[in-house]
Amino acid sequence: MTSTLITGIGLLSTQADIGDVRGAAVILDGDRIAWVGSANDAPEADARLDVDGRAVIPGFVDSHAHLVFAGERSAEFAARMSGQPYSAGGIRSTVTATRAASDEELRANVDRLTRELLRSGSTTFEIKSGYGLTTHDESRSLRIAREFTHETTYLGAHVVAPEFADDPAGYVALVTGTMLDACAPHARWVDVFCDRGAFDADQARAILTAGIGAGLAPRVHANQLQHGPGVQVAVEMGAASADHCTHLDDDDVAALADSGTVATLLPGAEFSTRSPYPDARRLIDSGVNVALATDCNPGSSFTTSMPFCIAVAVRDMHMTPAEALTAATVGGARALRRSDIGRIEVGARADLVVLDAPDPIHLAYRPGVDLIHQVWRGGAPVRRAVDER
After folding, report:
1. Beta bridge partners of 265
2. Class for the domain spanning 61-335
3. Given its phi and psi angles, is residue 245 left (phi above 0), alpha (psi -120 to 50 degrees) or beta?
4. What is the pLDDT of residues 6-42, one digit of tens each?
5. Alpha-carbon span 51 to 355, nearest angstrom
6. CA distance 301 to 269
7. Model pLDDT, residue 88
8. What is the DSSP string of 208-250?
């Protein structure tokens, strides 16, 4: 293996106990970080890279993305911008397109979107199923997703499949039975949309219980469209994360603060639906572990840009730039129950982002500007600066 010394770092944001360090250097050895410290004390390495005063941060960890789908819903977006409210029902139009698509078409779309994620600095990402809603389409979605990441989530319980509109109990039986049997070998997680227009608390518990019994770890789409039982179900079931968390009461916040469940906030969804943003300040001040993720999907948050989500979180959710960066890195790692990513420390995966800026504050300070100079994933460069390509 070849080791690489990265030096000339203006500010190193480790998201670890070391904190922010100026004049730092990092050594990558294979797919791991081998050394972190002052550039003046750096040992020799096989290769050397000077980043000329740029800031270096951990690779972003996007713990919530829906990438296996076909079609697009720009007309629905335009309608919302004209005043039409968002509801979970729009998912069904993507279901129709996804079922009609070939494996090759679905794979090509996932490939395009994961490339976008990497170019935007997301070195770890989760991918959900949920746009097939048949045993065949959910299992093939997960097989395709597994080609791109090990963080795959079975979301057969996205909404009730259209052919079960008059028999939701029958659909829950399918999701917890033969569909689960076909999907579990290709998934790490089980998820359920516990909200208006999707699944109630008892249905969500049944779905998560079956998934846990099949060896999957739980997570929940919770409290996006209105206040409901989703967060409480997530905490009760020991879910790694409750995602959205837009409508919370004091009991929800207290339950999250007293649990190991991460509140994953998805500002792209509120931006794209003109819905109220989650109260990140309230969660953080209450001691809740918070993550940021893109929620990339064709209906309510068609973005792969974590820098965009950071900027929105700072501007509209009252997070500090440092809090937003932490939520987009180590917060996402916690939401995936990973300790090897989201931070720059010895032994962690060598996932780094070199910013074309002297400080990570610029991610929010310069919204809409591509500040991703270089991306290193598993010790290998996956994006270099434009003038080096």
Report:
1. 292
2. alpha beta
3. left
4. 999 999 999 988 878 888 999 999 999 999 999 999 9
5. 9
6. 5
7. 55
8. HHHHHHTTPEEEEEESSSSS-SHHHHHHHTT-SEEEE--S--H
Choose among 169, 175, 174: nearest CA to 154. 175
**282-338 pLDDT, tens digit each:** 999 999 999 999 999 999 999 999 999 999 999 999 999 999 999 999 999 999 999
Instruction: For the beta carbon of residue 30, count every other beta carbon within 10 angstroms.
Output: 13
372-382 confidence digits (pLDDT tens): 999 999 999 99
**pTM > 0.85:** yes
**CA 305, 51, 333, 322 torsion: positive or negative?**
negative
> Which two structure tokens, joined as six digits, stand for 324?
């937003």
383 touches 354 (CB < 8 A): no
What residues form DSSP beta bridges with 32?
A: 29, 349
How far are the Cα atoms of 41, 92, 103, 156, 332 from residue 183, in angstroms, in the given order?
50, 20, 16, 9, 24
Give the Cα separation of 290 and 241 in Å (integer): 9
Contacts of 253 (CB under 8 A, 6+ apart): 282, 283, 286, 288
Q: Is 274 left (phi over 0), alpha (psi -120 to 50) or beta?
A: left
d(CA 47, CA 348): 20
Alpha-carbon distance 199 to 176, whole Å?
Answer: 13
**Domain spans of the chain?**
3-58+342-388, 61-335
What pLDDT shows up at residue 237?
98
- What's the mean pLDDT in 250-265? 98
The second-level CATH assignment, the architecture, of 3-58+342-388 is Roll (2.30)
Q: Is 376 helix (H, G, I), strand (E, B) or coil?
A: strand
CA distances from 369 to 55, 308, 349, 383 (A): 16, 9, 27, 16
DSSP 101: S
Q: In whole angstroms, give the CA distance from residue 172 to residue 175.
A: 5
Helix, strand, coil tally for the chain in percent (to 5): 40, 25, 40
